[in-house]
Structures are given as C-alpha cells and as structure tokens.
Amino acid sequence: MRIVLLSGGSGKRLWPLSNEVRSKAFLKLLSSPDGGMESMIGRTCRGLKEAGLLHCCCIVTHHTQVEITRHHTGGGIPVLGEPQKRGTFTAIALAAAYFHSVEGADLDETVIVMPVDSFVEPSFFNLLRRLPVSLADSGADMALLGTVPRFPSEAFGYIVPKSGKSAGGHFEVGSFIEKPDKAIAESLISRGGLWNCGVFACSQRYLLSCMADREIMPLYSGMLKRYDSLPQESFDREVVEQTSRSVVLPYDGIWNDLGSWDELSGYLKNRITGKGKISEDSSDTHLVNELAIPVHIVGAPGLIVAASSDGILVAGKREASRIKGELEAGAPQPMFEEKRWGSCSILDISKSQHGRETVISKVRMLPGTHTSYHLHRSLNEVWSISSGSGEYVLNGVMRPVSEGDSIVIPPGSPHAIKAITLLEFIQVETGTPPVKEDIERLSLDWNFESSE
What we know:
Blueprint: E1 2-6, E2 30-31, E3 37-38, H1 40-50, E4 57-62, H2 66-73, E5 79-82, H3 88-101, E6 110-115, E7 119-120, H4 122-128, H5 131-138, E8 142-147, E9 158-161, E10 171-177, H6 182-190, E11 194-203, H7 204-213, H8 220-225, H9 235-238, E12 246-251, E13 255-256, H10 261-265, E14 272-273, E15 276-278, E16 286-289, E17 295-297, E18 303-308, E19 311-316, H11 323-326, E20 336-339, E21 342-351, E22 357-365, E23 373-375, E24 380-387, E25 389-394, E26 397-402, E27 406-409, E28 415-419, E29 423-431, E30 440-443
Parallel strand pairs: 1-4, 1-6, 4-5, 8-12, 14-16, 15-17, 16-18
Antiparallel strand pairs: 2-3, 6-11, 7-13, 8-11, 9-10, 9-11, 10-12, 18-19, 20-21, 21-22, 22-29, 23-30, 24-27, 24-29, 25-26, 25-28
Helix pairs in contact: 3-7
GO biological process, one term: GDP-mannose biosynthetic process
Keywords: Nucleotidyltransferase, Transferase
GO molecular function, one term: mannose-1-phosphate guanylyltransferase (GTP) activity
C-alpha cells in the first residue's frame, strides 16, 4: 500500500499567516500531545506514524513549498515538487509515475490519495488500512472514505451511497453532489449521504490506465520536463466521479479541513497567540499575532485579528473568508518564508530608477542546518552576520563565518552556508526583478572538504 499526500492551496483563506509559500498546512497553531504547537501537516504525519503508515507515504506539492514541507516532516518521506500547478489529476499522475519508474511499484498495489491537512481522529488513519480490503472484496475500481455528517453543511461535497451495506462495511456509490444548499443537504443526509473528505484508493494499474487514456507516459523525469503541457484537470471530476464501479467506507469521527478563520479559531488552545491583549468585553474574539509588536483589542466581540509581516486582518469570524476574494487579483509577495533550515523575513523591497531591485532580509538558520549549494545568474548578494557561527562555501572554497563577518557573493558564484550554532544574518540581494526567482540549485547536500 502507498499513500499520496496532496499539499497545496493558494494560502488565501487564512491570510495573512498563510500565503503562496506557507499555506494553511504549515501554520503551527494546533496543540500537540507534548504540550507544544504543531502544524496540520505535522499532525497528519504524526497520525500516520502512530498508525504505522508514514513509511508508505510521499507528498506532492508545488516546488516553492518543497523546502518548508521537508522542514515540517523532518525529511523522512519523499517530497515531489511540481514545476507548476496543473490540478490534482496531474499531481496524482506525477506520484504514480514516481512509484512506477523510480520505485518499481507493483501494478496491483493499492494507492491511497488524501489531503495533507485534514483535522481527524486516530481512527481515521486506522480506517485507511481497510480501503485495500474494500477494493478486493467489492471488485470496484475505486474505494472512498466518507465522513458521517454532523450537520447539513453547504461547504462540503457529498457522496450518496446506494442502499445496502456490505459485510465489509462499505456501500456502493450512487452519486456525488457538490456543495448543496441546506435543504438539499438535509435530504442527502436522510438518504445516508456522507461528506466527501477527498480520500480515495485504487490500484496502481488503474492510475496508469487513466494516464494512458490521456497519453501520459508514466516516466517521472519525463513528466517533469513537459509538465506545462500536461492536463490541468481535477482528479475528482475527471476520474473519481466518472468511475462506474466505486464503493465508500463510512468514517464516523471528527473531520474538518479547518479552511477558514471561523473554523480554525475553535481549535486554538488560547484566545491570544503572540503579543497582545483582549479586553473582557471582547467576547469570542481571537488574536493571532506573529509580529514583535503588541496588538490590543478593546470592546470588539466576535472578531479574528491576525497579524504577520504580510499584513493585518481584522474581520468578523463568519465573514473572514471574504479575504480570499479580496486577494484574487493577486496577493502581495510573501514577506516571511519558512525553510527546511530556518526562516527568512523580508525587511524591505525597493527599486532604483534604473529598474534594479534590492531585497533586504533577515535570515535565521537553525543549528546543524544548511542551505542548498546554488548560484544566482545576475544577482549580487551580501551577507552581514549578526550572531552565531557557521561555515560557508563560495566557488568551492570553504571558510568559517561568525558574528561581524561580511561576505560578498558575485553573480554566477556557487555558494552555500551552514549553521553550527543558531546563525542570524542580514542578506542584501540586488539584481533584475523578480530577484527571488533568480536561483539555480546545484545540490541539496553538504559534502564539501574544507579548503582552508
């Protein structure tokens, strides 16, 4: 059995904490069993590990989220980076090609696909083990998980089963209904309708046949090279809903995609996260503040106030999702990014009259971590070390670096830096915009012999 975790999203519904690089899956706002905080992707991986399934997994995400994904998962499972977003069909096809051409998966092996950021109970992960059994017992091409509804939601799609549960606990699928109004949702629930939680299973053979129907060769490297020409389709609409022989296995437990501030606030441990205060008469108001300055809320009930280096949101909880529409024209460049080695906060972006762009950032690297070995084609880079110690490689030569040092990196010069202790420095990048896209990665490894 193999599991594909789909990670993506535009990062707009939980703005300003989420953005194009740090989607909701990476927000460390949920309580963990050890008393700390964890992200949705971290919670999912923990649940899969406890169920003995994490070793079966790979994650598919946009290439801009590969580093942050590795940071949150510890790098123990494969992370496949899409060159561009082409919809869930192509994302799943990329995983199938990886299983086939890289890992040599058996054609009859079951592949389970699920979102990486669902909020569920441990029983959900144990139920995944029954999907291959339901496929075998029913002879169906597709097996799905459906959540028993707690109320008639208008925000979720529904799986409507045919009557008659099998001995294995699954139903034949009758139809799919996408986000009905409340009256229709009530009717669907009365007929046994289940929330569609985006989890399905089929054989590797079936996935490859769907690819063959669209003339996609299951070669991982070949797909990456021609990714921009591949179909931009939804797997749900193009495959799942078109499969004539499907069964659904009910899951009777907590399930939520925590896709809005209204939903997420109900799972926050405290009303205040970060610096700030909420007055006693501001009932049912939550503050999530990532800034170094405090936020005070006085006499304002029922609000979500979220602040980060990307911006500040002040909204009634039930209306907070409207921010997605406000950002449809194009969200600003993310000012904060998590990396597998730490974080990078943009302090200032400016452009000269000649069109050159300068980006000033504060970089924070965790002990023992390192950047990729990379170069910039036209970008000039300067590091000014403010605290900590480490070592860096420039044009193949390794040198130590510590507080007070400055390093100039000319265009076209391969370089990387490693933190020995916690390492913080100011980074100044100057070049032709967009500066952040001028990068060519040469290696993710740190295999250098000291030259000095």
